[in-house]
Amino acid sequence: MSEKAANEHARKWDRCLADTAVKTVTGLGVGIVFSLIVFKRRAWPLSFGSGLGLGMGYSNCQHDFRSPYLIHGRMVKVSAQCNFHCLSEVCDTRSHHAA
Amino acid sequence: MLRACLRGANATARKNYRRIPLTSLQQCRHYTAGESSSASKVVVAGLLTVSGGIGGTVLYAKWDHKFRAAVEKNVPYSDWLLGLALGPAAQDPGLPIKKRVELAQPPSMIEKQVKKEGAEGPVKDSSPAPSQPAQSLEEASAEATHIISAIGEVPSVPAPCDTEAAAVKECNECHEHKEATAVHPASTEPMKERPVEEVAARLAQQEQEEQDISASVSASLEDSLASSAKATLQAIGAQEAALQAIMQHTDKLKEAMEAEVLPEEKSNQWKDLEAALADRTTALNDARAALLKANESLDSLRSVIDESKGLKISSVRPLVLAAEENLHNMVVDLDKMVMKVQSAESEAKIVSQYSELVNEAKRQFQREVSSLTPEIQANWKGLTGKLSTDDLNALIAHAHRRIDQLNRELAEQKVREKIHIDAALEQQKLEDQKALDNAVNTALQHVKEDARLDQERKLAELREVMEAEMRTQLRRQAAAHTDHVQDVLKVQEHELKAEAEQVLSSKMLEQETRYRQLTQEQLDNFTLDMNTAYARLKGVEEAIDSHVVAEDEARKAHQLWLSVEALSYSLKTAEADVPTVPLENAAQAVRDSCRDNDFALALASALPEKSLQRGVYSEASLRARFNSLRSLARRVALIDESRNSLYQYFLSYLQAALLFEKSQEAPPSQLSSEDLDPFKLLSYASYCLEHGDLELAAKLVNQLRGEARRVVEDWLIEARLTLETRQVVNLLSAYANAVGLGTTQAP
């Protein structure tokens, strides 16, 4: 079963890279399209689009790698009939850790 | 890069010098710089330590003797050293050895004894022992012994003593005392009553001795008496003869003087006179010799009498007395005779003097006559016819002149007569006085002697009387004593009988109880034997049963062991990357073989499910996997919950690329905070794995945190599984071995 742990990392990277590549290319394409159609063949939509794609891919990659550490909280309504001594679940928002 | 380099350098530096304390660096510096001074310092320090140790030991040994003893016992030659330093060890005070018997008696004891002895009455010394009860004799003799030792001097007196009637009581006391002391000083062991036979023998011996002595004394006395009597008689006879001779001589002399006889007869007379004189002298000599002899014999008799008096034997007394009387008589007779002889001698002397005077006168006359008439012969009576008238006239004139002269002389003589007579009377008086004194003295002596003899006779009589009286008293006392002894014996008999009966009854009782005890003992022993036999039989039965049980157990154990072996063998079926066969069957077999063994059952059910269903991986596969995991873990070493952005990933990758650590490093026994570095942990774990310690490797890997931990999680789980299974199987096999060993019968 260790393949899963070791392979997961590798798979993550694969996915990550693939995803980033796809997004970048897609962004580039959209940028090209937009550059061609809307923005008079300027360069900036290309970089913008690729950057957009890259950034999305990076973000996704990061999210993917972070996913084990993410804690999902939920809000629980405290009913009025409950006692004061009842423990109320604290809602946890997604914690953003400083990079 | 710089940071990583620094970190790596620090890590290596820390690793290398972690174990060496900081001070040692300084020491090393010093050590290289001043070698010689430290060596001398070491030597000095060593010497100081040793001397201090020895001094401390000595001081403590001085204070604590047990410590000193322990040191002396354990350390050789320490006793010499400690003896030098402290002197010999104090010995325990030995038990005072007193073996002196207390012999000092207070004076009251002596008084008491004297009183006791006095109270027992006068006891004849010839029979002291039977007249006293044995006890009192023992006491008296014991006390006497005490007194002897207290007083210190023992006058030894021969057994027979004087029995003076006047001092009977004290004498007897002191005799008893003396006898006791005479008998007992030789032996101070417990006294016994002298046996009767011994006493009788002693008495007989004493009597015999007395008799012998008395016989000898009497014989000697008789002899001396006889000899002295003979001598005295002889002397008396001689004296009488002498007396007779003297008287004869005197008579003859008188005759010769006065008688007017013829000249021939005169010459005969003179011849007779001379013969008588010779006789007298011889008789006197004889008498004197006989007197001397008699005196000698009397002296010897006296000495014998004194000797026998000195022996002080009662039976000799009358003999002595008789001898003394005889002696006295003889002495008296002898003296009388001597006196007679002396008086006769004095008379004879007077007569001889007279005769001499007459002879002298005659001679004078003859001379005168012859001077006048030389021719005339002596005998002038025959001359009447021859003389002439002148001669006659001359003769007559001479005769007249002579007569005148004689008358004158006569007158003178008459005048002088009175004076002479007075002088003579005086002389005679003196001589008479002397003779009277002598006679009085001799008479006084005789009378004294008589009186003494009388007194002695009376003493002897009195003594006899007293002895007779004493005998009667003693007889009376003996009778009383026999009565008393009889009574005492009766009483003692009663007492002894009672005592004997008591002793007998007690002994009987004792014997009975002993008998009962013995029978009871025998019964008990028999019961005990029966019980032991029964118990042994039971034991034998139990042993046999237990044998059966044991064999059963052994079989089961064997089965268990076999199943456990199968299980452990199935563990070995793991190959690389392929887990073992599922252990379910083997576990089932084990469970079957230990159905009634809770421990084994618990263990068998403690096998993890996964291992049962899927099997476990072998250590080798785990090791191999780890190596690949290691690189991954290294790469994500920096990622954890807080740092998990892609940039951190990039940094982590960089760190992994630039950081170099030992591939295998021996883990320390205790992990410090620096050891929790993932790289270090991984190298430790590699080392452990290489050396086959999966457990420690798993523990170390367990210390990883963050992403690295997530990455190795599966491996960890697998490792845990393997370890668990192995542990359980080991336990089971150990248990099976133990059980198998337990059930094997020792040869």
TrEMBL record, chain A:
Chief location of this protein within or outside the cell: mitochondrion
GO cellular component: MICOS complex
Function recorded in the entry: Component of the MICOS complex, a large protein complex of the mitochondrial inner membrane that plays crucial roles in the maintenance of crista junctions, inner membrane architecture, and formation of contact sites to the outer membrane.
Family matches, as InterPro entries: Mic10
Organism: Maylandia zebra
Key word Membrane present: yes
UniProt entry tagged with the keyword Hydrolase: no
Family indicated by similarity: Belongs to the MICOS complex subunit Mic10 family.
Name of the protein in its database record: MICOS complex subunit MIC10
Assembly, per entry: Component of the mitochondrial contact site and cristae organizing system (MICOS) complex.
Any one Pfam family match given in the protein's UniProt record, by short name: DUF543
Segments traversing the membrane: 20-39
Topology versus the membrane: Single-pass membrane protein
Location of the protein in the cell: Mitochondrion inner membrane
Keywords in alphabetical order: Membrane, Mitochondrion, Mitochondrion inner membrane, Transmembrane, Transmembrane helix
